Structures are given as C-alpha cells and as structure tokens.
Amino acid sequence: MTIQRSFELVDIVKETPKVSTFFFKFNKIAEPGQFLMVWVPGSEEVPMSVAYSDKKSIAISVAAIGPASNSLHAKKIGDYIGLRGPFGKPFTLKIGTKRIALVAGGYGAAPLGLFAERIKSSHKEVQIDSFLGARTREDLLFVKRLEKVSTVYISTNDGSTGHKGLVIEPFEQELKKKKFDCVYTCGPEMMEKAIFDICAKNNLDLQASLERIMKCGFGICGSCMMDDLILCIDGPVVEMRELKRLKEFGVSHRDKAGVLQYWKK
C-alpha cells in the first residue's frame, strides 16, 4: 500500500517508561522485519518497524524521543493516524534450520519478537536463543514476550539486571557452547557491526535489520541508500553475503540533509 490511508488507533499498551505499542485496525499481514511509514498530522512521516501483525490489526512499538514519536504518544484510542506499507524485505528462515540466535539492542526487540512468535507458530522444532540488551532494566523491551518462545539472556549497561555490559558478550559466551544456523540482529548499527564481525570470524550466517533515513518507502527518493542498496526495497533486512561487501556498514551514514556522517566508535 503505497498510498497513505487513515487507520483507527484501537489500543495502546505501555511497555516501558518510554515505549508504548500502538495497535491499528489493519487487514494486511506484515512480515517480521518490515516497516510502516507513519504520519501524525503536524509532524513528518517516519518509518517504524512492525511489532505485531495479524489479519485484524497491526502494531508499532514507539519510544517517545522526537517530534513525530511524541506526537504519536499524545494520541488516544479512537484517533486516526496515516499509515503506508508494509514495506521492505523481512527476516527469513531457511529450510532445515535447527537453532537460531536473536540479538536485539534496545528497541530492536520489536521486530525480533514478532519473528520469534511466527517461527514458533509454524516451526516448533526450531530452538531460539534471544539476547536482549538495553541501557537499564527499565529500558528492556519484550522480555516476557520472548521468554514464552525462546531462551532469553539479558544484558544492561548499568548492571541493573542480567549481565552487566554489552549484549554481544553473553552471545559470544553461548557461541562457544552452541551451534547457530543463523543469527538475526536489530539495534544500533555499531552493535550490529560487532555482531557481524563475530559471525564473519566464526563463519556464521547473519541477517541484520539496517536503518537509514527513509522518506518514500518504495525506492524512488534514494534517501536510504547504503552503498548501492536502497534499503527501503533491498532491506531493511540484509543478508550476510550483502553485508560483507558494504563499505558504509558500521562506518558512515547520511543525515537529513544528505551530508556524510561517521559513526562514533
């Protein structure tokens, strides 16, 4: 659906002090890893990952951190919001997969939670290990949701719960004990780059959800270019063979004006 339509907000669930999940009446099923273009009157249209999706509704989990997201948080049940999509390439599960790892940093748990639930509904034999990282205990997202369908490992920067440190550390520890057929990651790009380096070193398959500024959602404007990929159609989920050749991944990105910026290491 490339043309924007208004959809009714039918439920709001408070997930953390900053994050709420917004449910809309929606009759098209999205795949895990896809995104919607979301427009609240008075703010710019922005891309947001799908957190829940079925035949009757769709949901996005949103942190109140900017003008567009704060405008959405001000809405109430019964209000109407402009939506387009779903867009983009989703996460995929290869035939014969036995065990996977999900590595989420912060809000990256939203699409991975949907992916884990979809896997368990159709491939119960697949074992899932979920590694969730956040700054603090209060920032952790979808812990209970993922505990229902996977083995969960928690990391917080301040040590308020779980492992004190980065989410990549318990992942590396479990990697010494278990064989993963594929790793899936969503979160800050420098975390994803660290996961990529570990997977490349250990000859592991990887799918990463990458983020760039997106405006059109269907490959016309070019604002979401990463090397020669147009992430709104060639991503946001990118597989290992593509990640290996990307020169900008974990190195640079462009701001809203198109000016090249380098990630801080």
Automatic annotation (TrEMBL):
SUPFAM superfamilies: Ferredoxin reductase-like, C-terminal NADP-linked domain, Riboflavin synthase domain-like. Residues 2-93 form the FAD-binding FR-type domain. The keyword DNA-binding does not apply. Its cofactor is [2Fe-2S] cluster. PROSITE patterns: FAD_FR (PS51384). [2Fe-2S] cluster binds at C216, C221, C224, C232. Binds 1 [2Fe-2S] cluster per subunit. Gene3D superfamilies: Nucleotide-binding domain of ferredoxin-NADP reductase (FNR) module, Translation factors. GO terms for biological process: pyrimidine nucleotide biosynthetic process. Keywords: 2Fe-2S, Iron, Iron-sulfur, Metal-binding. One of its GO terms (molecular function) is metal ion binding. The keyword Lipoprotein does not apply. PANTHER family: DIHYDROOROTATE DEHYDROGENASE B (NAD(+)), ELECTRON TRANSFER SUBUNIT, DIHYDROOROTATE DEHYDROGENASE B (NAD(+)), ELECTRON TRANSFER SUBUNIT-RELATED. This is Dihydroorotate dehydrogenase electron transfer subunit. It comes from Candidatus Naiadarchaeum limnaeum.
